[in-house]
Amino acid sequence: HGLRIEITDNGVGYDTSCSSTGHGLGNLRERSAVMKGTLQITSKIGLGTSFMLEIPRTHRWRKPGI
Questions:
Q1: Which of 14, 19, 54, 61 is most buried, with most CB under 10 Å away?
Q2: Torsional class of 46: left (φ above 0), alpha (ψ -120 to 50), beta (otherwise)
């Protein structure tokens, strides 16, 4: 009943309790909120990072006239 995107890597990971000076993750969170979606980010040092974005289906998904 919507869209789910999952991305996982096997990279070095990072400590999610530490703050970052970049804007990337904040931008992802803001964009998902605008779409009434949820964004889950999990990461462990040495084990990689996973992102799961879920966006609910809305009236904009319908073709005109349906």
A1: 54
A2: left
Per-residue pLDDT tens over the stretch 3-57: 999 999 999 999 888 887 889 888 999 999 999 999 999 999 999 999 999 999 9
In this structure, what token pair is assigned to residue 52? 């799961």
What 34-39 contacts at long range (C-beta under 8 Å, 24+ apart), as own/partner pairs, is: none
Handedness of CA 10, 36, 32, 29 (dihedral sign): negative
E strand or H helix that includes residue 44: strand 38-44
Two tokens at 29?
A: 């969170």
